[in-house]
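Supplementary Methods, section 5.1.

A reviewer requested that the exact input to the structure prediction be made available. We therefore reproduce it here, unchanged from the version used in the analyses.
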Amino acid sequence: MPITLTSKDSTPDLRPLQTYLEEIRYPRNRPDCRGQGVTVRVIDGGWRFDHEALNNPHIFRRVSQSGVREMDIRHGTAVMGIMAGTGPMQGICPEAIIQPRLWYTLQDEIRQASEQLTYGDVLLIERCLGAPPNELPVEYSEDLQPAIITCVRRGIIPIIPVGNSNMNLDEQKEIEHSGAIWVGGAHVWPDGTGWPERRIAPTADTSYGARVDVCAPAWEGITCGPSDYFDGPDLMRHYGMFGGVSMASVLVAGTCAGINSARIAAGKDTLGVREMRELLVSSGQEVAYPRCPIGKFIDVTRALQTTLPDPDFDMDGKVGWGDFFEFAACWNEIDMRGDFDGDGVVSWRDFNVLRRRFGAS
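The structure derived from this sequence is encoded token-by-token as follows.
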């Protein structure tokens, strides 16, 4: 049963319940990977912008929602909370420029995104064709795919959920590979906190196939909008559990924005969709279910360390013995995460960088 919040009650801190951020190893305390300088356009069904967790000045709110269904508003609010939540929640990229758009004119919205977004920006399409159990990724539409291909050619990063239909996409009609990032849904168990001892499996309803690039948590994520955790007369304080490939896709979209914002802060160029997909796949964790392939499970910390090598491997704010051991593994495996000086080789010079940082915050 949900807990009813009255006007006299204060909303508790929900951040400890956002375990999905730990599951993808998102560095909560790292200030440069919160989306600064990156635009994320979200095509979804509606939003409750006056929710207390969406009191975020980076969210563009001037969107007409006339005639939008309540169920769509709950979905969009839940997605927006995971992406840009503040106050009692922690969004994954709360400082990105967030541009919500309604999915009712999907073809026009994707086309406009291809014209208005720039290299390294993110386009999250929270929509599938049809409904469960017959959902398909939007790329199966001959009307939508050309605009998605245009986005890819411009270096924009389209994020596409594969659907909640437990469907083998390899058995569907063959379509052109646009280069967009396809996202499946995963369940981390038993508790999602151990690394690397934890186990990852596809959710029961995620679609799957060789074309799926990456996956992320898609099971019981706390966010704003639903009301099965906290409810009450005030809709602006409803919280509950969310899941499915919609949840996984927003986590991947936020990860892309965070990686590019960290690169901007480091004076590096942003990554386009091809480089970003390669990075997420190469740094992700294998999901050992070959009959239901859902791609690599994203690892934000490892992706950041791969694209911006730093002696603080675990991103806990200091360089300790654990980082020395991680560097030793890089040396033995010729892993470029240990190439701190960017000369293309893991060498004694990188060891000296690590040594100078040892114990420093």
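The chain is about 30% helix and 15% strand. These observations are discussed further in the main text.
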